[in-house]
Design goal:
The protein is α+β, with helices and mostly antiparallel strands and 169 residues long. The protein has helices at residues 3-20, 31-46, 114-124, and strands at 51-58, 81-88, 98-106, 137-144, 148-156, 159-163. The protein has one domain: tt1808, chain A (Alpha-Beta Complex), CATH 3.90.1570. The longest helix is centred in the N-terminal third of the chain and has 18 residues, at 3-20.
Length: 169
Amino acid sequence: MNWNELAAKLTSAWDLTAEERPDLFADIAHEDAVRGQFVKRLRVVFGTEYDIDENFNVMNYPDGTRGIKRIKPGEADTGRIAIDVVIHHPGSDESASNLLALELKKKTANRDWPDDIAKLTQVTSAPLGLRSFQYSYGLLIRYRPTALFSHAILFRNGLRSELNTITLL
C-alpha cells in the first residue's frame, strides 16, 4: 500500500472518530481513550486487510536492550518496545506486511517525544542485528484538542519528514 492510500485510510478513520466521538477531543480526554476509539475506526476502515493492534510489543534483544531504552532491573516484560498502534500481518518480517507503526500524542505542550521518535526511526530502518523486521511507515501524530491533526512526522527507511497539515494527505 502506498503512502497516499494509507493516508486516505488514516484520515477516514480519524474523521470518523472525530465525528462519532467529539467528546474525546476535549482537553480532559486522555490520549489512551482517543487511541482506543481511533483503533476501533481503523479496524472498520481496514476491514480484514491488516491486523490493527494497540500497545504492540516488538522483539526483545538478548543483551537486555530495547534499542531505545535500557531494561530496569525487575521489570516485568523485559526487553520490549511498546508501539501505540501497529497495522500489520503478524508473524511476517517483510516491510510490506508491517505497514505502519504509529505513535499518537496529545499535544498539550511543546515536546519532541524523543523516545517515540527513536522508536519509529528504529522500526522503519532496515533490519539490523537481531531485529529482522521493518515497518514500511512510521507516523507520530501530535494532535491538539479541537484541532485534530495539528502536526505529524512521517518515517520511512529510518528517515523523518514533517507533515504540517491538518489532514494526512
